[in-house]
Amino acid sequence: MARTALVTGGSRGIGAAISKALKAEGYQVAATYAGNTEKANAFSEETGIKTYKWNVADYDESKAGIEQVEADLGPIDIIVANAGITRDAPFHKMKPEQWKEVIDTNLTGVFNTVHPVWPGMRERGFGRIVVISSINGQKGQFAQVNYAATKAGDLGIIKSLAQEGASKGITANAVCPGYIATEMVMAVPEKVREAIIGQIPTGRLGEPEEIARCVSFLVSDDAQFINGSTISANGGQFFV
Ligand code: NDP
Fold it and tell me: Where is the Ketoreductase domain (predicted)?
């Protein structure tokens, strides 16, 4: 039977490309979203991928949502923790709410997604966790103290899960995208975006499908020995 993959924030942007790539490889896919139902319905209609609405920042909602996915599609074998937000401001102007919202979604959201599924993965002796971190978690970024903290935290999560899951057939890895052409990046003022592109040696933004291909590899049987690793896909903008 086909393995089941859960992609949080899987209804648009990078997540949508990941959902589609995994479906094309024969996995059963559940894609979640936060509130943009119109977009999620259009995505579901276009792809035939079932979508689920819950807030990854809320543990009880996540747990209930995951139970529903497992009732519909069977046990979750693969988690792609992709849902994420930005609430940018220079540190001296950053409000505590901006800090909290980003931490709750991007960092606690990963805990809330993986934790309810983890016992089942351990029991079944198989699991693939991929967290979508960011180049800005590796190098920091002006006006993104909150976001960079969460994305660096994601790397701590996967390195620790890798050690705990290894003996149970579970791997945990991260992808750190550079700047990718999604609504998140297109929302940045054009002048700033042009400046960003000027810093990318490849001379262009990445495409969501380029991140999806990294994920497809990390969840495949070919990647069984890759655990606690990070793939940086950033057009040569930053080397770890
Ligand atoms: P988008 O803003 O295009 O899409 C975000 C997705 O996450 C949407 O499906 C959204 O749902 C969902 N989402 C947001 N908040 C929540 C929440 N609280 N609960 C559940 N779902 C939520 O983002 P991108 O595709 O650009 O980014 C995807 C991931 O990649 C993020 O983690 C981001 O930090 C990371 N990343 C992106 C880069 C880029 O250049 N774009 C670069 C590096 C990393 P809804 O549609 O309902 O709002």
Answer: 3-183
